[in-house]
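Technical note accompanying the year-one report. For the benefit of new consortium partners, we illustrate the data format agreed upon in the data management plan: each record pairs a sequence with a C-alpha cell string. No post-processing was applied to the example shown here.
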Amino acid sequence: DLHLPGITLIAGGKALLDKATFRMSRGRKYGLVGRNGIGKTTLINALCRKELDKCPQNLHILQVEQEVEGDDKTVLEHVVECDIERLELLKEQEERGATDITDMSEDEKDKHNDRLMEIVERLDMIDAVGAEAKAIEILTGLGFKQAELNKKSNTFSGGWRMRIALSKVIFSEPEILLLDEPTNHLDLVALIWLEKYVSQLDITVVIVSHARDFLN
C-alpha cells in the first residue's frame, strides 16, 4: 500500500495539491478523472518520478509516456528485451556454461557451480522460459498479427509504436502501472483485450481516461 500524508504538488506556480493525503491500496485499479488541463498527467508524472514527498524510492513504477523509437529491433525483441534481469542472467549462464573449469581449484569450482545453480533457480522463479509466450500474448492482444512480431519497429507508424511501448510496460509488471489515455491508440478489439488483461493484473493500476465504459 502507498500512503503519503501532507503532500503538496505545484505546477506552473499553481498548487494542484496542498497538504493532501495520497493513498493507494495494492492491487486496486484507480481511474483518475477530471477536465482537460486540471493536472491529471502532472500528478501521474510526479508519481512515476517519485517526486511526491515521502514516496518510497524503491517502488517499481512504470508509465507509458511516449511511443517506442523506431529502430532495427523487431517488435518481439523490444518487449522481451525490456526484462533486463532475464537478459543478464541468460548471458551469465551462457558464459559460465562455456567456461573451462579444468584448472580451477576445488573451492573455485564449488563457487562456480553454486552460482550456476543460483542462476538456474532465479530464471525458473521469473519464468524466463515463458517470457516470449507472455510477450506474444500481450502483443497479439493489442492487435499485432503473428507475422508482424518479427518485423522491425521502424516499419510501423507512431500509433503502432505506442502499442509496443504499452506492451513493454504491461510485460514488465511493475508494482504500480500508470496508463495515460490508453484508449487513444487502440481499436475496439484491442480495447476489450486491455480491459480484461488489466482487470486480472495483481498490481496497482492508475488510468487517466475520459472513456467511462473503459473505466467502468
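Partners are asked to follow this layout when depositing records. The longest strand covers residues 14-24.
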